[in-house]
Design brief:
- The structure is a single chain.
- Helices cover 66% and strands 0% of the residues.
- By secondary structure, it is an all-alpha fold.
- It has one domain.
């Protein structure tokens, strides 16, 4: 976020949404670079935190990004919930506060989105 064009952050929710989106873009760009090159993709930055993500490998991260784009087109709120939970590391109460929705809505949307994403990623992984 530092050094990029100026962003007028309106509140905490807006900041978290922007930060989650940027984290997603950074990780996906990193995975694409690594996949494009046979070695280290020319990237000399250490990303130790990538091992903590619940996806295994660059291909799975790229499949998640594609599936998340599809989900967001179908249900924008569910897409935001996944993005904030997965890429922003927010808990359900934090997500409900940021999005201005009830905790019950987050608790209901998260499993639905997770199952949908899993199904989409399984389809793209199959021949």
């Amino acid at each position: 976020m530092v050094g990029s064009q100026s962003v007028d952050l309106q509140n905490r929710a807006h900041f978290i949404a922007v930060a989650s989106r940027l984290m997603r873009q950074i990780l996906v760009d990193y995975a694409r670079e690594r996949r494009a090159s046979k070695r280290d993709g020319g990237c000399r930055i250490a990303f130790e935190f990538l091992d903590a993500l619940p996806v295994k490998g660059d291909a799975e991260l790229l499949a998640l990004d594609d599936a998340l784009n599809e989900l967001s087109a179908l249900d924008e709120r569910q897409g935001k919930i996944v993005e904030m939970k997965f890429f922003g590391g927010l808990s359900a109460p934090e997500i409900s506060q940021v999005l201005g929705i009830s905790r019950a809505t987050v608790d209901r949307d998260w499993p639905t989105a997770r199952v949908w994403l899993h199904r989409q990623m399984s389809r793209t992984a199959s021949p």
